[in-house]
Amino acid sequence: MLSPYQKFIKRLFDLVLALTLLPILLPAIVFLIIIATIDTHQTGFFIQKRIGYQGKPFSFYKIRTLKGKKHDDIIAIYNQATPFGKFLRNTKLDELPQLLNVLIGTMSFVGPRPDIPGYADKLTGKDRIILTVKPGITGPATIKYKNEDKILLQQTNPKQYNDEVIWKDKIKVNKEYVKNWSLQKDIRYLWSSIFG
Questions:
Q1: Which pTM does this prediction carry?
Q2: How far apart are CA 196 and CA 192, in angstroms?
Q3: H/E/C letters for each residue in the chain?
Q4: What is the mean pLDDT of each run of 10 residues along the chain (196 residues)?
């Protein structure tokens, strides 16, 4: 578990990087939201409830990539994603609005990926150590499962495979991340996410 000093250093790093990147990337974010609005015929700025720090729900920001309303089922996501939406998802550009989450403090650049209700909020015992850090835009489990959509689409029962295999492995990976946190590792995970 991170000490108060480590949490301070992590938050300071997040703030400095977010304040540096937002002015540069804000025009691109606005442009992509406009294109997504035209492409999906819905508001291009997508807000969803996810589970964050201490197991509490928060508003999670993304650029909309789907035409439909069901955003928690892998088959629906694949079928409802527009060609532009698939491009955004593949390049991770749909994640850019999460810079706002980092700035306001509901997320960190690096940490366990925030899930929809029904997963992280159901953690018990020692697994709840994952909830002692803010969820991240990227992290070791995110990097390991960067092709998660493709993996799930190959399964006969994607939800069952996610719940019984991927989710359980993510818990292990994220527990190790929290137990062995360092700023240097966060920087390496960011580097791998962008250039790896």
A1: 0.91
A2: 4
A3: CCCHHHHHHHHHHHHHHHHHHHHHHHHHHHHHHHHHHHHHCCCCEEEEEEECHHHCEEEEEEECCECCCCCCCHHHHHHHECHHHHHHHHHCHHHCCHHHHHHHCCCEEECCCCCCCCCHHHCCHHHHHHHHCCCEEECHHHHHCCCHHHHHHCCCCHHHHHHHHHHHHHHHHHHHHHHCCCHHHHHHHHHHHHHC
A4: 96 98 97 96 94 97 82 59 89 96 98 94 96 97 91 87 94 98 97 88
